Amino acid sequence: DTIGKLRRKEGNWVDWGKWCQELQKWGLTPQAIFEQTGFEPIHQNQLIVASQVYGTIVEHVSPAVRDFFAHRGSDILYELRLLPQADRVQAAAVVVQMQLNSEDTRQLAKAMKDYALSEHPPQFTDHPGDAVAYQVWKACQSVTDPVERTRLISKGLRYAHSDTARQQIEQLLLNPPSSPVTVRLPIYRLESDEQLPH
User: Fold this and answer.
1) Model pTM score
2) Can you say how many angstroms the Cα of residue 10 is from the centroid of all Cα atoms in its chain?
């Protein structure tokens, strides 16, 4: 039975998500499922949503990406829930290629959503990595703290997918942000002892 399989953790996390969803459809509350299987309600939700995301990408990703997510990564796929299906497929490939964790993936998904809604320079392509690079490039226009800028630029270089996006990020290294203008007071040089106040 489904409860027994969950209790024994048979199958993989994708199965667990499907089984939790089945039990909820049968009228069990997340709390009741937790009491009988040990899967906490918040974890059930993550598994259900992530298994749905997995279902939308499994036919469209490379075998390497499919294998990666078949055994782990429910927390990562959960972060892709708000993206359209085609974007999920692209993002999943980037996640595996770059070994991103769930926090990185959340930032990637957010960058992709923002990118899709914004006007952006043609140097940045629709690749997920370029979406992050564009976010970095934009942020660097107003960040003057050298440590923060360096962190952002290295992130941009790590993610930039196209050569043109990479060039935009590299330009940031050459053009530091305009620092606030300091007013220079004229300096008067004393020519001789006579000009010193007595």
Assistant:
1) 0.83
2) 31
Whether the CB-CB separation of 156 and 136 falls below 8 Å is answered with: yes
Distance CA 134, CA 128 (A): 10
Q: How many CB atoms within 10 Å of residue 156?
A: 25
Tens-digit pLDDT string for the chain (198 aa): 999 999 999 999 999 999 999 999 999 999 999 999 999 999 999 999 999 999 999 999 999 999 999 999 999 999 999 999 999 999 999 999 999 999 999 999 999 999 999 888 899 999 999 999 999 999 999 998 999 999 999 999 999 999 999 999 999 988 766 554 444 555 555 555 555 555
The residues near 178 (Cβ < 8 Å, ≥ 6 apart) are: none
CB 74 within 8 A of CB 51: yes
Cα 156 to Cα 168: distance, rounded to the nearest angstrom: 9
Tokens of 179: 């620092």
- R_g over Cα of the chain: 26
- The phi, psi pair for 118, rounded to 5°, reads -110, 155
